[in-house]
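Box 3.1. Reading complex inputs
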Amino acid sequence: MASYLVRRTAFLLLSFAAAMLLIFLLLRVLPGDPANALLSLDATDEQIAAARAQVGSDQPIGTQLLNWVGDVARLDLGTSFTSGTAVLPEIASRLGVTIPLTLISFVISVVLAAALGYYAAVRSHTRLGVAVAAVAQVGIAVPVFWIGILLVWVFALTLRLLPSGGFPREDWADPLDALRSLLLPICTIVIVMTASLVRYVRSAVLDVLDSDYLRNAQALGATPGEAFRRHGVRNASVPVISILGIELASTLLGAVVVESVFTLPGLGSMLTKAIETHDYPSIQGVLLVTTFLVLVIGFAADIVQRVVDPRLRSSLSGAHA
Amino acid sequence: MRLRLAPSLAGILAAGLLLTGCAGGGTGDATTSAPADTAASIEVGSLYEPSNLSNVDAGGQGVTEAFSGNVYESLMKLDDDGSVTPLLAEDYSVSDDGLTYTFTLRDGVKFHSGKELTADDVVSSFERVTADDSQAARKSSYAVVSDVEATDDSTVTFTLSQRSISFPYLMAYVWIVNPDLADAKTDADGTGPYSFDEWQRGSTLSLVRNDDYWGDPAKNGRVTFHYFTDASAESNALLTGEIDLITSIQSPDSLTQFENNEDFTISEGTSTTKELLAFNDRVAPFDDSRVRRAIYSALDREKLLDAIWDGRGTLIGSMVPPTDPWYEDLTSVNPYDPELSKQLLSEAGLADGFSFTLSTPNYDPHPEVAEFLQSELAKVGITVDIKVITADEWYTDVYQNLDFEATLQEHVNDRDVVWYANPDFYWGYDNADVQELVASAEQAETTDEQTEDLKKANEIIATEAASNWLYLYPQIVVASSDVTGFPVNGLNSQFYVYNIEKA
């Protein structure tokens, strides 16, 4: 296990380095000069040169890359070209919206999906069981912004129960107020995420229900429920956990749409604005932090999977140690 | 999402001279019957979040909207009708040769930090605009100033290298900023009726009433701008009462839910935003004014305006909107007349038509306008190839490299017809008479002379169809019906909030 961790960590760092290089190069391949962000329509050649020097786009790409890597190593994500403020604190403040939004949605979705997926599998021959599976199927097909708009229409515009968007000026000073603002966005993500997870849980549970060891357990006198709890849960959760990592990562990245629909000052809206204004330090910063989070999620999912599944654990510590 | 040139390039173009926000003029009358709450907090919805808080560092249209006249003030003020009156200047005088402007400052003006306003602050504010690294809009217009000096604590003298009748008007764009302010991009210290409170990036920017204000105090206690990236989210916020008004509606679709609803008022003011089909007048066949006129006459602009704005907005026949002092109605100079169009084409030797590439910015309304042009021009035998480009490509290819045949663009500033006197400008219109008239207008001794010259210049520009001016955008503010006193014209993207009252 220890050597697996070392190798997995090395892989994590390597992926991160590759991602950094890719982010950097992709931005440079795009047409347009970030200095444009600072220029007015009547800019003179001198002003253009001054702007290039200010944003560093007059330097060779290699130098720019080394500077950036050096800064990142010192945990300095630079200063926004346009706003003139440090990127890292702003990302931190945006994460104050994006992370709770993602995590709360994730936890609720996992609980709901586990219950619904289990029900849909165990009762796969009843009408309700089929209905759950069918609704989940529909839920996957519906675009997330459409669900958001629908929820706004019902709960904000029609029933006037919740705000249609925005986030309190005081951030989390009043947690209840902040949560109220996040309620509809969370519901939106939960609907989409649960729908997608239910399918995985259902098929994982169906696989397990169909297994010989479960039949054996029942033949030995366990009720179907007991047998599943004792022998099935762990087995069914292994394939689901690997999916959870991917789901969590894609929710984090997909929050940009939800943030736009609900006007939340999260990472997504920061990225959109930064791209609009060619603000390289902000774009790089946001991409870097999200990439890092996604890689860490993948890392964690792998570890958890191995902790849950003794076979993976032993094969890894045994065969490859 | 709609990316107007000014905001989307908020940064890229930083708004400059001709494309920064602007629209016709003024403050709506604040006539309320119900007693208004002077401590009320006004929640304003906008699509234009500033990039930073400085107007000389590419802060964009958003910072003008939130700060101009509200937090920062200038020596002169641009009024509702487009006229210019003294603001922080008590008065000013011009020497007989028109080369020396002397401004006397108002007494008892204090910055929000408590510091008293002096002539030195005015000088440094002006130098801030003209500094080497300044990206201020209209910066090049200030080149005419050869010297600026604080003659005493309350007098500032500007010496010009040549006459400039627009000089007082230009002073309306110079914010007076406390030079002690450490970073104007992230903080503010002005003399206006509000002081800057807080900016939650990506979300809100709030102002609080300045109780030490030298003039009439603001009629509300606090104003918060709420920024949206999505127009429907913005409309929803107004419908649910989270905001009180929307500064500028950008598509007629957003209006349907407020029409015939007594909870809301829709105000349509005059903007100065012109939708332009601009040609590269340097290259054939657009170097021939008959071809440009032929295209203009082939376009049923009324139909276009209906399609884009649902009947709102105004048809124009030149670059001059009704709020500019030299406006006259020239809509009939190049009438919609496909037969005339064909005749002009054959006179130009293009009876069999021709084809050209239309560089079309990829954001509303340009793609829709491009398709309209394509189908209209097909009727007179002209083939249009639509080339969709990003705002950034527009800036680089069209604006800087002049690598285009024709393009679509919205020009939002007031008083921008003078760009047709610059043959190096992107559309490359080159007419010596126009150049002479514009130059002499600027040298004029009276505004009447200036107006007369610019009218003449504009008539030539319109007759030659230097560009095709398709329509003038409406300036639409939608507000909750208990809210009054908001500006209806949003001149130059300004949005004076101090007269807004909530019953």
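In summary: Chain B has a mean pLDDT of 88.
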